[in-house]
Design brief:
Bound molecules: zinc ion
Radius of gyration: 20 Å
Oligomer: single chain
Strand order of the largest sheet: 5-2-6-7-1-8
Structural class: alpha/beta
Number of helices: 6
Helix content: 25-40%
Order of helices and strands: HEHEEEEHEHEHEEEEH
Distance between the termini: 68 Å
Shape: elongated
């Protein structure tokens, strides 16, 4: 017969059921602000959590997740070769600090393997993992990490935002210094002058048709 301690052990570890969440939205849909609000709510309720973020721009040398509204929280950096299951196993072994929740920002930049590792964290430790990220890149194609999340997440939520015309934003358009939409180039461009605007699919097309009429850009789609 089992003693009380091992039973309690079972309840706090093996019987904990976690979930893998993917919350996606376009640029400017306040994903990071939502992540930080969630972190704040955990702090209020004294729930242990960790923040993580893939490293894309190494010029950003401070380990923080920061939103435009000015809040920030410390985060662990995820490198392309980081094994997230091993990383969490290291934290989870340290019982008092064991997080109940893990919040991942910019989850589109995770590798498919890292998404699988997060799923293993959920299934083996009962830790909940919420991944916030973009669904598609500026060419309207799925990011690798987002594809894997759409494939295996328990819960998928869209964080909606509105185009200037009132429709829902779908496309993360890359725009050059002339305000023209660009559909070619590297998926991740560091330190360029281009910026991104979230637009609905209709505005995205109309703007490109207008550009092609001006003879500035061929309409390739
Ligand atoms: Zn629109």
């Amino acid at each position: 017969m089992r003693n009380q301690n091992s039973l309690l052990g079972d309840l706090t570890t093996m019987n904990r059921i976690g979930k893998l969440y993917f919350r996606y939205g376009t640029m400017g849909s306040a994903k990071t602000a939502l992540l930080l609000t969630t972190a704040y709510n955990f702090e209020e309720r004294q729930i242990a959590y960790r923040c993580m973020k893939p490293v894309v721009d190494t010029r950003d040398n401070k380990n923080v997740i920061r939103s435009r509204i000015g809040i920030e929280r410390e985060c662990a950096w995820i490198y392309p070769d980081t094994n997230l299951f091993e990383m969490v196993r290291g934290i989870a072994a340290d019982d008092p600090d064991r997080p109940e929740w893990i919040l991942v920002d910019e989850a589109q930049f995770l590798t498919p393997e890292q998404v699988d590792q997060l799923a293993q964290v959920v299934d083996e430790y009962g830790i909940n993992v919420i991944c916030y990220g973009l669904r598609t890149d500026f060419r309207t194609h799925l990011f690798e990490g987002s594809r894997r999340l759409l494939e295996i997440a328990d819960t998928i939520d869209e964080i909606k935002s509105t185009c200037t015309c009132g429709r829902k934003t779908i496309v993360n358009a890359r725009v050059n210094s002339l305000g023209e939409i660009i559909t070619e180039g590297a998926v991740v461009e560091i330190g360029g002058n281009d910026r991104y605007i979230a637009v609905c699919r209709r505005c995205w097309r109309n703007k490109r048709v207008e550009q092609s009429r001006k003879g500035r850009l061929p309409l390739d789609m």
